[in-house]
Amino acid sequence: MQRILLRRLALVLFAAFVAVAFATTTAGCAHPYSGKPEKLKRPKKKNRPEPTEEDKAAEEVQWDEECRANFFDDKKPKRRSPGAAAGLTKKADELLLAADGQDGAQRIETVVEAMSKLKNALKKDQFNPEATYKLAVAYAMVLKKGCALRLLERLNELQKMEEVARKAELTIKRATKDLAFEGFRKDADAAMGE
Q1: pLDDT band at 183 (very low <50, low <70, confident <90, very high)
Q2: H helix and E strand count, the chain
Q3: CATH number of 82-191
């Protein structure tokens, strides 16, 4: 019985010690939501500095003026396969439309995939005006102005071939209104002979 009393006394003393310790540590602390809220000052409005010429130049699109590709091959023409070229061109056109809604690396990957299909289309029919035009659009989408202009020049040259002259002429009319070439419209029109 004495042990039970001693245990109870020890528990009561321990509880009293904990209560005193808790009371002394929290006596100086206030509840976080007690008292009046402090007033915050509104930040002062700062006027944005006027952009410098360097800032304006950095915002402009940086076109790649050079092109190492040779779109004016003097090799002997291969046997043409316009049907196969048209199928590949259609698939590439779908990819270019999909790329319009994309940004960043995904857009570039989609355009590069379209370019691959268009190059294969031109291997099937090297005088295909539609594939030539779409490849120029693809190069413009990835800011390769030089290559886009060279392809538009090639498209203009295709007007001289009897077999594709009418298609090339119609394609040039579409290209003169295409927004892909708006960044260099004067140069694009000159390349197409407009």
Answers
A1: confident
A2: 8, 0
A3: 1.25.40.10
Give the range among 62-66, 92-96, 122-126, 162-166 with minimum mean pLDDT: 62-66
Structure tokens that stand for 146 in this block:
């030089």
Extract the tokens encoding 55: 């800032």
Residue with tokens 């009561």: 12
Residues 6 or more apart in contact with residue 48 via CB below 8 angstroms: none
* Cβ atoms of residues 92 and 136 within 8 Å: no
Q: How many residues does the chain have?
A: 194
Q: What is the pLDDT of residue 58?
A: 47
8 Å CB contact between 181 and 140: yes
- Band of pLDDT at residue 147, cut at 50, 70 and 90: confident
Domain boundaries defined on the chain: 82-191
